[in-house]
Design a protein that fits this description.
It contains 7 helices and 2 strands, in the order H-E-E-H-H-H-H-H-H. It is mainly α.
Length: 220
């Protein structure tokens, strides 16, 4: 006869097995973390070696000179001029965009060819001239773009008429060789245009800066 008052024996837990499994999980996690740290350290080391020029400018007897220290020194010497130049460039770009003025690659290439021809006449190459000025070809292209932007923005203020050319030749007693009248007049006209452009550009920048909201966060 079955005893209804008998109690069912509870299932026996295995704490030892659970603890062992937990230990294995912890060990696996630690192993993964350590492996990840090693990979990161190795990756940083490889990147630092491959791109050491991004962080170190030079070494002297094994002692490094960081690029940051060089940049800080350059900022002391010419930081203000560089910043003001960048502000002016931003103002020119903004006004050109507002007036829907764009400069094509062909326009820049045409100006570069003119410069190359002038340099060849002086027995010099463009690369040599750029190296002398401490410039790159990209630097030259940026300057040409800015020049062309100003020329288009201020076109109505830089026009030179024949009477102005005549007056300049008279005032400066320019002697023009026979047969070279057209060439000399073109040179004088270009010079007068550049003088007007320079004056108009300064007026434009002064006006733009007075109307713009410029906030300085660094004092040089």
């Amino acid at each position: 006869m079955t005893d209804n008052n008998s109690e069912t024996t509870p299932a026996v837990s295995a704490p030892e097995n659970n603890q062992e499994q937990k230990k294995k999980i912890v060990i696996n996690k630690q192993t993964i973390i350590i492996a990840a740290i090693i990979v990161v350290v190795v990756a940083i080391g490889v990147l630092a070696y491959l791109y050491k020029g991004l962080f170190v400018a030079a070494t002297v007897n094994g002692s490094p000179i960081s690029r940051w220290s060089v940049i800080k020194e350059l900022e002391k010497v010419s930081g203000k001029n560089a910043l003001e130049g960048m502000i002016n460039q931003k103002l020119i770009d903004d006004e050109a965009q507002k007036k829907e003025i764009s400069i094509s690659d062909d326009e820049i290439s045409t100006e570069i060819k003119k410069i190359e021809e002038q340099l060849q006449g002086q027995g010099q190459t463009l690369d040599e001239a750029l190296a002398t000025q401490g410039m790159t070809l990209d630097d030259l292209k940026k300057r040409i773009k800015t020049q062309k932007q100003l020329e288009k923005l201020l076109a109505d203020k830089t026009q030179v008429v024949d009477s102005e050319v005549d007056q300049y030749i008279k005032d400066n007693s320019v002697v023009i060789p026979a047969g070279q009248e057209a060439s000399y007049r073109d040179q004088v006209k270009n010079q007068l245009e550049q003088e007007k452009l320079s004056a108009a550009a300064q007026t434009f920048l002064d006006s733009s800066r007075s109307q713009a909201t410029i906030r300085y966060f660094v004092n040089y």
